[in-house]
């Protein structure tokens, strides 16, 4: 019997139809439940791909120290992948990340280094680059690594196409590293160029874990604006309210970026009819419970 190992069960996540949140105009709203991955997020896909492909090319060898800047989910996924494949993982992240995220990374054996809340991910990336320049470890660099979007081209895109029987008309995704939307866009557009790719960024002043509006000098090099048809600005309150709606109306406990994805999908639904709208539920909400975002209403 050839039993699967943990990395064999990354991907092939469920795609479910929302029942109570109404998309109107005869639209169908489908949620891709990426929290069902082993480490709990969509980032399991690129994490396993980046380590696996780098090892296959001989760029890294088990026992090496790897350094990565992360806001949370990629770090958890990389820590899991490093534990599976025998690497030491050093993660640099803003101190504002939830305790659940930090504890999950530490549980997998990763070493954590904090950037300031004010400096955020930009400071975390600068710290990681400085450490790599000093020879303290090897980079994966999810922001520039082509294996990030390639993972979604090879897995997420084909899954969406197959699970909808080729009926998907719109794909909605938060944009952080932009790996998900880049890879899925490439695949789906090859199947049907009319499929609309909708990317989400935070509106000015919003702080939504997993969704970024990068300054030009920090824009991920894997990003290609021509692969995104529509970009929507999502408000923080809007994302948080729709995150709670997912849990209370659909039984889907997810994070804030997933609430933003639902909000974006509903905006799309207001403008179209007879459409099949797929949105990414990036992770599980249990890693945000300490933030108070799900606190009982009083």
Automatic annotation (TrEMBL):
<feature type="modified residue" description="N6-(pyridoxal phosphate)lysine">
    <location>
        <position position="43"/>
    </location>
</feature>
<feature type="binding site">
    <location>
        <position position="257"/>
    </location>
    <ligand>
        <name>pyridoxal 5'-phosphate</name>
    </ligand>
</feature>
<feature type="binding site">
    <location>
        <position position="73"/>
    </location>
    <ligand>
        <name>pyridoxal 5'-phosphate</name>
    </ligand>
</feature>
<comment type="similarity">
    <text>Belongs to the cysteine synthase/cystathionine beta-synthase family.</text>
</comment>
<dbReference type="InterPro" id="IPR036052">
    <property type="entry name" value="TrpB-like_PALP_sf"/>
</dbReference>
<feature type="domain" description="Tryptophan synthase beta chain-like PALP">
    <location>
        <begin position="7"/>
        <end position="283"/>
    </location>
</feature>
<dbReference type="InterPro" id="IPR001926">
    <property type="entry name" value="TrpB-like_PALP"/>
</dbReference>
<protein>
    <recommendedName>
        <fullName>Cysteine synthase</fullName>
        <ecNumber>2.5.1.47</ecNumber>
    </recommendedName>
</protein>
<keyword id="KW-0198">Cysteine biosynthesis</keyword>
<comment type="pathway">
    <text>Amino-acid biosynthesis; L-cysteine biosynthesis; L-cysteine from L-serine: step 2/2.</text>
</comment>
<dbReference type="Pfam" id="PF00291">
    <property type="entry name" value="PALP"/>
</dbReference>
<feature type="binding site">
    <location>
        <begin position="176"/>
        <end position="180"/>
    </location>
    <ligand>
        <name>pyridoxal 5'-phosphate</name>
    </ligand>
</feature>
<dbReference type="InterPro" id="IPR005856">
    <property type="entry name" value="Cys_synth"/>
</dbReference>
<keyword id="KW-0663">Pyridoxal phosphate</keyword>
<keyword id="KW-0808">Transferase</keyword>
<keyword id="KW-0028">Amino-acid biosynthesis</keyword>
<dbReference type="InterPro" id="IPR050214">
    <property type="entry name" value="Cys_Synth/Cystath_Beta-Synth"/>
</dbReference>
<dbReference type="InterPro" id="IPR001216">
    <property type="entry name" value="P-phosphate_BS"/>
</dbReference>
<dbReference type="GO" id="GO:0006535">
    <property type="term" value="P:cysteine biosynthetic process from serine"/>
</dbReference>
<dbReference type="GO" id="GO:0004124">
    <property type="term" value="F:cysteine synthase activity"/>
</dbReference>
<dbReference type="InterPro" id="IPR005858">
    <property type="entry name" value="CysM"/>
</dbReference>
């Amino acid at each position: 019997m050839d039993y699967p190992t943990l990395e064999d069960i990354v991907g092939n996540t469920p795609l479910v139809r929302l029942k109570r949140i109404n998309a109107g105009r005869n639209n169908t709203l489908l949620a891709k439940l990426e929290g069902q991955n082993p480490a709990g997020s969509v980032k399991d896909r690129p994490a396993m791909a980046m380590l696996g492909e780098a090892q296959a090319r001989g760029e890294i060898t088990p026992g090496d120290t790897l350094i990565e800047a992360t806001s949370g989910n990629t770090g958890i996924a990389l820590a899991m992948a490093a534990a599976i494949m025998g690497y030491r993982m050093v993660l640099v992240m803003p101190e504002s990340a939830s305790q659940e995220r930090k504890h999950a990374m530490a549980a997998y054996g990763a070493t954590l280094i904090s950037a300031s809340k004010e400096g955020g991910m930009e400071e975390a990336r600068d710290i990681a680059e400085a450490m790599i320049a000093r020879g303290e470890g090897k980079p994966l660099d999810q922001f520039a690594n082509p294996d990030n979007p390639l993972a979604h081209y090879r897995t997420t895109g084909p899954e969406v196409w197959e699970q909808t029987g080729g009926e998907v008309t719109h794909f909605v995704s938060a944009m952080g590293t932009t790996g998900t939307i880049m890879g899925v866009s490439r695949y789906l557009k090859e199947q049907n160029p009319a499929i609309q790719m909708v990317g989400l960024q935070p509106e000015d002043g919003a702080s939504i874990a997993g969704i970024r509006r990068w300054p030009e000098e920090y824009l991920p090099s894997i990003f290609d604006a021509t692969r995104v048809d529509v970009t929507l600005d999502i408000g923080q309150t809007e994302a948080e309210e729709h995150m709670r709606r997912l849990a209370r109306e659909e039984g889907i406990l997810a994070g804030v970026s997933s609430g933003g994805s639902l909000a974006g999908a509903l905006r799309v639904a207001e403008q179209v009819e007879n459409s099949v709208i797929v949105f990414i539920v990036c992770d599980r909400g249990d890693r945000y419970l300490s933030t108070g975002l799900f606190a009982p209403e009083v």
